[in-house]
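forwarding from the other thread:

> can someone predict this with flavin-adenine dinucleotide?

sure thing
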Amino acid sequence: MVSLKDIQTFFRGRLTIHEPLAPYTSMKVGGPADYYLEPADKDDVVGIVRYLEENKFPFMMVGRGSNLIISDEGYRGAAINLEEGISRVTLEEGLIVAEGGARLTKLVDFCVQSSLSGLEWAAGIPGTVGGAVVMNAGAHGGEIKDSLVDVEVYRGGSVLRIEKEKADLSYRRSGFTADIVLSARFNLQPGNRDEIMKRRSELIAKRNATQPLNLPNSGSMFKNPPGTFAARLIEQAGLKGKRVGNVQISEKHANFMVNLGNARAEDILRLIELVRRTVHQNTGIQLDLEVKLIGFPQNSVAHAS
Ligand SMILES: Cc1cc2nc3c(=O)[nH]c(=O)nc-3n(C[C@H](O)[C@H](O)[C@H](O)COP(=O)(O)OP(=O)(O)OC[C@H]3O[C@@H](n4cnc5c(N)ncnc54)[C@H](O)[C@@H]3O)c2cc1C
């Protein structure tokens, strides 16, 4: 068993216990983690994770929590966030090096300042580099894998550099789910700064026009099935605006669920199940979750995706 006293002997970052996770998610839902850790730097991450692994104590990474639904009971284990200590973005030997806790907004801004093109599609995605690499995030025809060169990870006790070709990246999937993404390198093309800025502004405006950004949400709840859009199937099933407790399928974008205020994770799960059941009955298509569920029983229906 791990102990707070033990951790305090070597951990240099911020550490709290019974920390509510809702504020660390974009949906603003979820109970506490037993431990919440913000390591000071990469050595601190490696130190704490080795300690947790040696003591067989569960841990999870939390980026901006923009793709996470955390249960009302929270997470029995340690939640680790890299935003404070591991979030630099630099240009080294012609490649952009972005640390795991850096926000995508910061990465895109850095690209604009450096007149480098290729990551404009990420403008407005509210995640971190770590979360985006693990999810192989994408939008508007682009995805992380397009310009990724390699990823520095903590895996099985060591820090390794994994080339993109060995990373098993596909639509909203990667081979990094059991790793800790410490940094990623990107190869971008020289571009015209004004054009890059213009493209960034256009894409942000498009998000504002089509997504319910005035209310807490987790982005797209479901992956798009091959050849169609989850939002279209949900809308055709007549579920736009459907509400369970204080969770609602957005009127603006049917693949988004919004928190109308003090929503419960349990209600999100019930709405997820309703959507999957109804769309399956109507079309025979089984919608797979894009969001990650944390702290729910393994046999809950939504986990079956
Ligand atoms: C309004 C809105 C719009 C969105 N639009 C898009 C979109 O257009 N395209 C898209 O792909 N996604 C979109 N998303 C979803 C989400 O922003 C992305 O998936 C994002 O990349 C997740 O990053 P995060 O830091 O928030 O990760 P989190 O949600 O915190 O975590 C996601 C997963 O990554 C893991 N993780 C996080 N950091 C690390 C790390 N350093 N090392 C290892 N594992 C880690 C977590 O454990 C978890 O499994 C949107 C979300 C919202 C709320």
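The domain at 212-304 is CATH 3.90.78.10 (Uridine Diphospho-n-acetylenolpyruvylglucosamine Reductase; domain 1). thats all i got for now
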